Backbone:
């Protein structure tokens, strides 16, 4: 696992008082992100399928002063995700951040893999992401909050967003209305910033 230092995260960004939901929190990526959000001041709702692992993680994080809780849920089950969002709002009052870190893979040659195994992978890696994003975004919109999209596909962002934030190495370089955002403009900010370093 990658080591992460609390002071590094605090210096890089702060999400003090925000509420972060982290799926797949017991996996390598989920654990690191959940801890990073906690170090940066967020209240963290961790979720996964294993209550034992979640309980251990909660104890570990609370010992470090992180305000956290957990909720056992299968992200591929709509009712579990709805209950997760409700539990988060009941505990912390809102949802501000979503980190989707869950997933499953059991690669096999297609001739050896059953349709049921393939479907499980699709449910775990595709359907579940849709369900988690759908119900978390609904909650954020109901709160009057914005929904942040992170993508390297500029046409997708321009078609769905009303403003673009340009970042490089953790620094905010520009805030652009979509009418002013082009690939050339965005890359210009990044190149100028990189040349300064």
Residues:
């Amino acid at each position: 696992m990658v080591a992460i230092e609390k002071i590094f995260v605090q210096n890089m960004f702060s999400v003090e008082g925000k509420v972060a939901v982290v799926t797949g929190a017991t996996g390598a990526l989920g654990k690191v992100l959940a801890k990073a959000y906690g170090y940066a001041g967020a209240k963290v709702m961790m979720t996964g399928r294993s209550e034992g692992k979640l309980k251990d993680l909660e104890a570990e994080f609370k010992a470090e002063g992180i305000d956290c809780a957990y909720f056992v849920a299968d992200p591929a089950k709509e009712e579990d995700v709805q209950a997760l969002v409700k539990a988060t709002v009941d505990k912390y009052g809102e949802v501000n951040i979503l980190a989707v870190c869950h997933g499953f893979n059991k690669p096999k040659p297609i001739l050896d893999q059953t349709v049921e195994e393939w479907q499980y992978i699709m449910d775990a890696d595709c359907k579940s992401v849709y369900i988690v994003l759908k119900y978390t975004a609904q909650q954020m919109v109901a709160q009057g909050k914005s929904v942040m999209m992170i993508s390297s596909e500029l046409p997708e962002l321009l078609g769905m967003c009303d403003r673009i934030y340009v970042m490089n190495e953790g620094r905010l370089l520009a805030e652009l209305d979509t009418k002013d955002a082009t690939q050339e403009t965005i890359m210009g900010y990044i190149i100028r910033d990189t040349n300064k370093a």
Summary: Residues 140 and 146 are 7 Å apart (CA to CA).
